[in-house]
Amino acid sequence: MLMRNKTASNILMAMLLVGFIWISVGVHFNAEWLIRLDEFGNQLFRLNLSEAVNQAIFNFTHIGSIRYLVVVAVGLGGLLLLFKKELTFWWFGLTVGLVAGVVPWFLKQFFARARPIDGLMVRFGYSFPSGHAIGVLALYGLVIFLAHTYMKKNWSRHLIMLASLAIILIVSWSRIHLGVHFLSDILASFSLGMFLLMTAQRVLVVYLQPMNEKSECMQKKRGLTTMVGR
Asked: pTM score, two decimals?
């Protein structure tokens, strides 16, 4: 069963990586199929809403900004330290920093894709990939993983996981609706973000946690040896 789950995980990770590369190549060469995809995304996700609703969406989309992501990440990091999850704390901080910050910044500089010019919101900088989309996916995707791993009460765990998923989806949709990103930006951000999160989760579960458990076991043995020696 474990081997089957690992095989399925490997296949999914490969599909995510191929999907990101496929879209990246389309962006680099300004492919016709990508232009049609983005036109379809605009027709599907840019809705004719009232000014008040658009203002609410404008306010909500800032949840994906670096400032808000840092505040939430620091709060969650503090909780991990409070519950003595030092290893998970460092893994969490490094994963969020790389996936939500370093990786998208370098990719934006490399592809230098211009943003849509007819949006409801004016944003500077490059479009590909979406920093907001990959940022909320990184942070709240980790929240989903941590809630599933550490929380015992089903109702509160499910509530946090559903709320995190809603934030990821709404912020990502809002970037297209407000006209600051193309659909391909969001799809690529999802593909890359999920691939990196699954990689980080595997590093934690397969490598870091066993090393930590082995270290704790050795410390307990030393403690017992010291007590016997006395």
From this structure: 0.88
